Amino acid sequence: MESRSADPGTVRPGGRTARVRAAVLQAAGDALAEGGLSGLDLADVARRADVGRTTVYRRWGTPAALVADLLADMAEQSLPRARTGTLPGDLRANARLVQRTLADPRQGPLFKAVIAAATCNDEAASALRLFYATRVTEWEPCVREAVERGELPEGTDTREVVRAVSAPLYYRLLTTGEVLDEAAADRAAAVAVAAARAGAFVTAETPAKQ
């Protein structure tokens, strides 16, 4: 999960509605990072964003809906994939982007909170799945291109390779108190590359040549 936050004071295009949404989502992210899902209160978010409570309740209605919109916004704002020209380089860049996000003092707790929300609310769960699907779709071409270059076997599940890069990093985030560093990111990428080259992600037989 990799994302970039708008710089303080910037306003996305789109007029007042867009400004209100940006302010509310920023406030929601701050509240989640500070207090987790239990600390997400629509009235408090409205106060933080300096907008009317009626506006927040009318547009989002529930904390889960606010989390879902926050995830949609994070997917929209996420950084594009790297293009290093090699599979190890691309996947290392992906792993380091995930690592930087999860190690960030704000983003790390924020992602823990949205994952927690997804475990107990269907709307949040659907939004989280969409977020990850968007990010996998962004990075999948680097694996597909590696297959086309002959770096990986035909029939490799390209999306699964991308998932394999970030999975160990999320596991460590959620199950240990350790700080994620670049060494962990590089190791996750190297393991994914080695497994992919060994055929661990091949899920389809190579079509017979005519």
From TrEMBL:
Residues 41-60 bind DNA. It comes from the Bacteria. Keywords: DNA-binding, Transcription, Transcription regulation. Residues 18-78 form the HTH tetR-type domain. InterPro entries: Homeodomain-like_sf (IPR009057), HTH-type_TetR-like_transc_reg (IPR050109), HTH_TetR (IPR001647), Tet_transcr_reg_TetR-rel_C_sf (IPR036271), TetR_C (IPR011075). The keyword Nucleotide-binding does not apply. One of its GO terms (molecular function) is transcription cis-regulatory region binding. The keyword Hydrolase does not apply. It holds the Pfam family TetR_N. This is TetR/AcrR family transcriptional regulator.
